Amino acid sequence: MKRFGLLVAVPLALLVGCGEADELKTTATDTEEVAEAEASATDETTAEETDIQESELGTNKIYLKNKAVTITETMGPIQFAIDKVQTSRLTVAEAYSDSFDGQEEVTVVAMNMIVENTVDETMSFHPNQATLVTNTGEQVSSDLWFSDDVGGEFMGKVKKEGNVLFFVKAKPEELTDLKVVIDGPFNENFDKVAEDRYEYTINVMK
Q: Is the pTM of this model over 0.90?
């Protein structure tokens, strides 16, 4: 949960397009509607010219939505997945200029991550502190302030899901491949329970 109510809706607004398919599936009332929703969910690179979101943060124009990312990994007792990615261009509202070092525009890379601890023992895992490396030569850390809380301690058989956000300078159309680097999980004794580091490459070309 975010520290100020003003910011609570920001990550959801930035990645709202990626959740549309799931929402449609739960509201469809007949076979045809369900089929249409499932078809929408498998559309890998959709974005309409008019797909623009307004929020307290500014004006966010969607460039690409990929609702069919299939990254899954078993990290010891941790099950991890990235199932959606979205890129967009944000025109920053004046009130948030300082949050972006005075930049008037930034590109938002949003990823939906799913994490589940499958054992009763407490595990620590921090995919919301991932590093992003772009084909344009940028290396940035995820933004903890605007991202959802999908990391930290997993006290027993806990499951977390949410959006992890990265802000880069390159325009969305300049991005082709994104490498995501995540440190592996560890137990209460700070012993690694899987590999030290995991790397995944996601194609974000239209």
A: no
